[in-house]
Write a structure and sequence with these properties.
The complex is a heterodimer of chains A (115) and B (114). Chain A is an all-beta fold and 115 residues long. Chain A has no helices and 12 strands. In chain A, strands 2, 5, 6, 10, 11 and 12 form a 6-stranded mixed sheet that branches. In chain A, strands 3-9-8-7 form a 4-stranded antiparallel sheet, with no helix packed on it. A two-stranded antiparallel sheet of chain A has the order 1-4. By secondary structure, chain B is mainly β. Chain B contains no helices and 11 strands. Chain B is globular. The chains are: A mainly beta (115), B mainly beta (114). Chain A binds chain B through residues 32, 34, 36, 42-46, 49, 51, 90, 92, 94-98, 101, 103, 105, 107-108, and chain B through 4, 31, 33, 42-43, 45, 50, 55, 91, 93, 97-100, 102-108.
């Protein structure tokens, strides 16, 4: 069975400090993993993806995520938060191509950035 | 590419009326998804299509909801009759190949049923 758990529903950081949004997954296969961001009243936008290449993945807007198979984690980080990073972030797991396809979204983490 | 296009952006209707939401996926994408987002339930997958064929509709709430994809460039989600609890933001997304390819989302349709 495939599942994804975002460990924090809300995270609050001060502008200029590091961001850590946690995600754990389970999958019977070697999955693809994604992070999406949703700003208010907008659709979801892809931040970055992992598809079994380098374990450290760099995305847009200075975000990156590290795939750790031993910990089944795919945490999202950014060295320094900006006010424009305030949004909701979704971790997503997807089974590899072939056979029945399944995409599972986490419940989301709302990031608040304090000036 | 213009991305995934949804219409209308906002829809306000009275209980009992029929509502039709529309989606144009990105050209060449083989998969199309309909999601619903609410504060209470978060993001829910309603149905998805592969090459215009419905693959999984287990998320469709009840018989009042129906979705069609008559061709590769158009899909509709219909609610008949609508109820206040259907109020939500409905997103359409498309993807080239599941697994490696990300989903590309439209900006959503905000539905309010009074």
């Amino acid at each position: 069975a495939q599942s994804v758990t975002q460990l924090d529903s809300h995270v609050s950081v001060s502008e200029g400090t590091p961001v850590l949004l946690r995600c754990n997954y389970s999958s019977s296969y070697s999955p693809s993993l994604f992070w999406y961001v949703q700003h208010p009243n907008k659709g979801l936008q892809l931040l970055l993806k992992y598809t079994s290449a380098a374990t450290l993945v760099k995305g847009i807007n200075g975000f990156e995520a590290e795939f750790k198979k031993s910990e089944t984690s795919f945490h999202l980080t950014k060295p320094s938060a900006h006010m424009s990073d305030a949004a909701e972030y979704f971790c997503v797991v997807s089974d590899p191509p072939g056979g029945y396809q399944k995409v599972t979204f986490g419940t989301g983490t709302k990031l608040q950035v304090i000036p | 590419d213009a991305g995934v296009i949804q219409s209308p952006r906002h829809e306000v209707t009275e209980m009992g009326q029929e509502v039709t939401l529309r989606c144009k996926p990105i050209s060449g994408h083989d998969y199309l998804f309909w999601y619903r987002q609410t504060m209470m339930r978060g993001l829910e997958l309603l149905i998805y299509f592969n090459n215009n064929v419905p693959i999984d509709d287990s998320g469709m709430p009840e018989d009042r909801f129906s979705a069609k994809m008559p061709n590769a460039s158009f899909s509709t989600l219909k609610i008949q009759p609508s109820e206040p609890r259907d109020s939500a933001v409905y997103f359409c997304a498309s993807s080239f190949v599941l697994g490696d390819s990300p989903l590309h989302f439209g900006n959503g349709t905000r539905l309010t049923v009074t």
